[in-house]
C-alpha cells in the first residue's frame, strides 16, 4: 500500500494505495519474482497478444518481501488459466513514483501497475492510461463495485478502481484490556466510544515502569512501558475524525478548505493532546524514525490500542497475539474512511484485452486469496451484502467474529472515501499540508496557530476542485 502521507510500511498506502501479500491457491510459499532489471524494467513486448498469439506483459508493484512472493504466485496462477499470457513481475519496493515516472518518460512503461492517485489522474488526463468505462457492459463485475473505489478523471472516464478496498479500524490487545479491567472497544458503529470515553480508557491502559497511570501520583512520563493508544498522523487517521465531527478537509467543490474551522482545529488538537497533555500516546520522538509495525507494538505491549488500516489483519492473524477489532471513537457521527491505490493499464500496452482479463482476475476474491488472508477487502458491493459472498472471504480463522460489524457493516454504512483520492493536484496539496500538521504533531505549536495560515495557503490557489465521484 505507498505514501509519504504515512511513515514506513504505511507509506505504501499513498492516497490509500494497496499492497499484496498472501495469495491465491498456494499461499505465500515459493516464487521470488523479479525486480527492475538492468534495463530498468518497463517496455512492452511486441509478440502476439489480443488474440494474436502469446502475450508477454509486465506488472509493476510495490510491497514487502512477502508481498513480492505473493504477487509472483498470483501471476503464476493466472498463467495456469491463461497459458498464452506471461506477466513478468516488476517488484519496486522503494522510490516507486520516481521509477515509474522515469519509465513513462522513456516510453518503457509497464503494461499494468499499481498507481498512486495523483500520478494516475495526471497520466489519465494525458491519455496514457486505458479508460475502463467502455468495458463495463462486457464485464458487469467491473461495473458493480463500491462507488468510492473508482478513479473517474472526466465525464464517464475512469482509469479503473482501487486494487482492493481498505478502511480504518481500532485494533487492540485483549490481554492489555483484560489486565486493566477495561471493556473491549465497541464493534458496532452506533455503540462507538465518545472521544472522552476513548481518552479515559487510554488513561487506564497507559502504564509507566512501576505500573502507575498518567493520572496517578508519581507517574513517570519518561519511562512509559505501555501506551494506551497509537493513532498515527496521516490522512487515514485524522480524516475519519473530521468526518465524525461534521467537517471535511474542503467544501464539496474542493476549492476551499475547512481545516481552520473550530471543528477541525479541535480534531488536531485532540490528537496532539493524547501525547502532550494526557500522555497516553507516544510522541514522534518516542516512536523513533523506524517505528515498529502495529502488530509488533501490540504484540510487545508497547501499545494497547492502535488506529490502523484493515490490511493490518494479515500480520496480526499470523502471530499468537489475542487481538480484537473495534470501530473508531466518535465525535457524534460514527465514521471511518476508505482508500486504496489503483491498478492501472497503460494505453501503450500491445495486449489490452489480456491486460483487462488479468485486471479482473487480480482483484477477484474467488480467484485470489489475498482477501481471505486478511490483506485486502473486496471491491464489489455483493461482498458486503450477500451472506454467501461475505462467507467466501471472511469465514476463516483470519477474520475474528466481530469483523462483520466492526469492518464490513462499518465500511458499508459509516464511511467516506479519503479526500486524498478525490482532490485534484493532491501531491502539491500534500507538500504543504503534511509539514504543517507535523508541527502540531511535534507539539511545537497549538493547532489553531498552525491551521489558520495553512488554510490561507491552501485557499491561495492550491485547491483546484475534486474529480467526479461517479459517471454522468
Can you lay out the helices and strands and say which pair or pack?
Blueprint: E1 34-35, E2 55-61, H1 65-81, E3 85-91, H2 96-105, E4 112-115, H3 117-125, H4 140-143, E5 150-154, E6 157-161, E7 166-173, H5 174-180, H6 195-205, E8 207-208, E9 224-230, H7 235-244, H8 262-276, H9 284-287, H10 294-299, E10 303-309, H11 313-316, E11 323-326, E12 336-339, E13 342-345, H12 352-362, H13 382-385, H14 387-394, H15 403-413, E14 415-417, H16 426-441, H17 447-462
Helix pairs in contact: 16-17
Overall description:
This protein has 472 residues and is of the alpha/beta class. It folds into two domains: 8-165 and 340-380, Periplasmic binding protein-like II (D-Maltodextrin-Binding Protein, domain 2, 3-Layer(aba) Sandwich); 168-338, Periplasmic binding protein-like II (D-Maltodextrin-Binding Protein, domain 2). Helices cover 35% and strands 15% of the residues. It contains 17 helices and 14 strands. The protein has helices at 65-81, 96-105, 117-125, 140-143, 174-180, 195-205, 235-244, 262-276, 284-287, 294-299, 313-316, 352-362, 382-385, 387-394, 403-413, 426-441, 447-462; strands spanning 34-35, 55-61, 85-91, 112-115, 150-154, 157-161, 166-173, 207-208, 224-230, 303-309, 323-326, 336-339, 342-345, 415-417. Strands 7, 8, 9, 10, 11, 12 and 14 form a seven-stranded mixed beta sheet that branches. Strands 1-3-2-4-13 form a five-stranded mixed beta sheet. A two-stranded antiparallel sheet has the order 5-6. β2, α1 and β3 form a beta-alpha-beta unit. α16 runs antiparallel to α17 (447-462). The longest helix is centred in the N-terminal third of the chain and has 17 residues, at 65-81. The chain starts with 33 loop residues before the first strand and ends in a 10-residue tail after the last helix. The relative contact order is 0.18.
